[in-house]
Design brief:
Layout lengths: L1 E6 L7 H14 L4 E5 L6 H11 L6 E4 L9 H17 L4 E5 L6 H9 L2 E6 L3 H7 L13 H14 L6 E6 L8 H17 L2 E4 L10 H4 L5 E2 L7 H21 L9 E2 L1
Parallel strand pairs: 1-4, 1-5, 2-3, 2-4, 5-6, 6-7, 8-9
Helix pairs in contact: 1-9, 3-4
The structure holds adenosine-5'-diphosphate and magnesium ion (MG).
The site of magnesium ion (MG) has 3 residues, from helix 1.
Length: 263
């Protein structure tokens, strides 16, 4: 069983949306997929799952991890994740996907430490760069840039001999149009990822169709009877399947060919 953690210290980079799309695409490729959400106050993924189940659509399993009492630290969360992992393995789960929140918190750090693959989402905005890497602009510098977490997780992976550990930096919510600011962010990320030995990949394009996905449960992989198949839907489907294929290949999993759901 493999664990994928989705992270970034910035809200709105599309972690949860990407988690739902990736989890569904993996499930539709015949992989038993379980998502753990750390956003336990609003539980967007549980809502997504409820909508899909109501419409009788294939869905990844959704779970959350609650800690009762005290102030759990990173070690406490690691124990809790280890337990969740062994339960998932016992249940025959192939992929565990952990959707984190956008803060430097013990559970978020622990989720990164548990991963075989981390997917960090970043949008084409300079503000996102300041959250990730150390910069010269003092006023824009994040107190704890994500780069610190990357260092910490890498050191941990080396110490525990996790040789096949992988990291994707995922340009997410991309604009359809090529823009100067997008190119500039991409250039700076390219340099950063090369130095940090991280793979820069394309995530999801920013599409209106994703905005109410948590409420409808309908993903680009679903074919809705009677509705014309638009080009943007096909493009979204292609990008979701491409992302799933990348993850499947990286983790060395065996999966079926992409499949559609008829609604
Ligand atoms: N690819 C996308 N296209 C359009 N809207 C998106 C996309 N990804 C996320 N969103 C929207 O952006 C907001 C934040 O997304 P979310 O996935 O919750 O981000 P995060 O989990 O990183 O905070 C939500 O309103 C969501 O619907
Ligand atoms: Mg989220």
């Amino acid at each position: 069983m493999k664990t994928v953690t989705i992270g970034s210290f910035k809200g709105g980079t599309g972690k949860t949306t990407l988690g739902a799309v990736l989890g569904t695409a993996l499930a539709l490729r015949g992989l038993k997929t379980r998502l753990i959400e750390l956003e336990t106050s609003t539980k967007p993924l549980a809502r997504f799952q409820a909508c899909r189940e109501f419409a009788d659509l294939d869905c990844p399993e959704i779970d959350d991890l609650m800690m009762s009492g005290g102030q759990p630290d990173v070690q406490d969360w690691q124990i809790s994740f280890r337990q969740a992992k062994s339960e998932a393995a016992q249940d025959g789960v192939d992929v565990l996907v952990i959707d984190t929140t956008s803060v430097w918190k013990p559970e978020v750090i622990a989720a990164h430490l548990m991963a075989d693959l981390v997917i960090t989402t970043v949008t084409e905005s300079p503000i996102d760069l300041y959250q990730i890497m150390p910069t010269n602009g003092p006023s824009m510098q994040a107190v704890r840039p994500y780069a610190q977490l990357i260092d910490l997780v890498r050191r941990h992976a080396e110490k525990s001999n996790k040789t096949d550990f992988e990291w994707f930096l995922c340009l997410n919510r991309r604009s359809h149009l090529r823009t100067r600011v997008g190119d500039s962010v991409r250039d700076r990320l390219r340099t950063f990822t090369e130095e940090a030995n991280i793979r820069l990949i394309d995530g999801l394009v920013d599409r209106v169709g994703y905005r109410n996905m948590m409420e409808t449960g309908i993903t680009p992989m679903d074919d809705i009877a009677g509705e014309p198949v638009q080009r943007s839907l096909l493009a979204a489907r292609t990008e979701a399947n491409r992302l799933a294929s990348r993850v499947i290949t990286r983790l060395g999993l065996k999966a079926d060919a992409p499949r559609l759901v008829n609604v």
